[in-house]
Each structure stands twice: as structure tokens, then as C-alpha cells.
Specification:
Elements: H1 2-19, H2 26-36, E1 42-55, H3 56-83, H4 87-113, E2 121-134, E3 137-148, E4 154-158, H5 175-182
Antiparallel strand pairs: 1-2, 2-3, 3-4
């Protein structure tokens, strides 16, 4: 009986010891890695709340709208400079029109490749508060916004919610490589 009692005490102590291990929050780890960017220091997440999610379909629509607007603006400028007989300025806008059309074709190709995944979540938007410490410097984040993929890759971080989706295309597999071929991003 004493042996059984001792074994139960030992099991209880082991259970308590394993419960005392501090598990790290994967969101905190991902944000900390992004914020510190390889610097020695630490990041403490105080509060985080998921505020939205975006599917690949929605992100493709956003990117397409951005480039359609850009195409309209460049076409108008091209026409204006042609009418004013300023060929150098017109040529610069003609090149921008060609790059934008190439990007739009690239988006269509990526959309075709991802056809079966269009309704999957591309990224989540969060609002958070925290503090980063590097050496003797402290940076407080109060009501900052971040977009992260489901695999916890940070896409963008900003203090203004309205600026959060400017870099959203980065969640689309192949988007940055496609832009590298055209050397332009919105």
C-alpha cells in the first residue's frame, strides 16, 4: 500500500511539474519574430483580437481592382500627354500601361492555378497591443494592426487599419515572384 501511495505522489508531482512549463503563444512568437527582425530582444503580447479574415477570392478581387484603377489612370495620362504632344511623358505612361496589363494577366494565371483554393482563408486581420524590448529601447504597440496567414506568416503590420491591406497580395502564392518579373507593386 505504501508503494502505491508513493507512486501516486510521484505521478502527482510529475504532473504538477509538467503543468508548470510555460507554453509560448504561436501568435506572440510570430509577431515577435517579425517585429524584432533578428535583433536581440523580446516581445510581449498583451492583447490580440481577430477582427477579420480574407479569402483568396476576395484578395484576387482587391488586387484586380487596384490594377484596373491603375490602368485607367495611366491610360488617361497617356492620352493627355499624347494630346499635348509630349512624347517622352506619353512613352513613360505607355510603359506603365504595358506593365500593368502584364501584372493583370499574371493575376489571371495565378487565379487559374489556385482555382480549387479560392474560398480558403488567405489571411486573418488582428488588432493587438504589446511591447518590444531591444537592448535599452522599448517600443509599445497599442491598437496596432497585423495581417497573418493561417500558417502565422506576417504579411503586413500598420498603425492604421486603412493601410492594412495594401500588401495583401503577398498572401497569394507566386504573387511576389510575378511582380519581380514586372518590377512593380501597387
Amino acid at each position: 500500500m505504501k508503494t502505491v501511495f508513493r507512486i501516486l505522489i510521484l505521478i502527482s508531482l510529475c504532473t504538477l511539474a509538467s503543468c508548470g512549463e510555460k507554453k509560448t503563444d504561436p501568435l506572440q512568437d510570430a509577431l515577435g519574430t517579425y517585429i524584432l527582425q533578428g535583433q536581440e530582444g523580446s516581445f510581449q503580447l498583451y492583447d490580440i483580437a481577430k477582427i477579420d479574415s480574407t479569402t483568396f477570392r476576395t484578395e484576387f478581387e482587391r488586387r484586380q481592382n487596384v490594377y484596373e484603377l491603375k490602368l485607367q489612370e495611366e491610360t488617361k495620362l497617356y492620352d493627355d500627354y499624347n494630346w499635348q504632344r509630349k512624347p517622352k511623358n506619353a512613352a513613360r505612361h505607355w510603359e506603365a500601361i504595358q506593365r500593368t496589363r502584364k501584372i493583370m494577366k499574371g493575376l489571371d494565371s495565378l487565379k487559374t492555378i489556385m482555382e480549387g483554393r479560392m474560398d480558403e482563408i488567405a489571411y486573418y486581420d488582428y488588432v493587438f497591443s504589446g511591447r518590444a524590448e531591444t537592448g535599452d529601447k522599448f517600443t509599445d504597440f497599442k491598437d496596432a494592426y497585423v495581417s497573418m496567414t493561417p500558417t502565422l506568416q506576417v504579411i503586413s503590420m500598420t498603425a492604421q487599419k486603412k493601410d492594412l491591406h495594401k500588401a495583401g497580395g503577398r498572401a497569394i502564392p507566386g504573387y511576389l515572384q510575378m511582380l519581380g518579373d514586372t518590377s512593380e507593386e501597387d
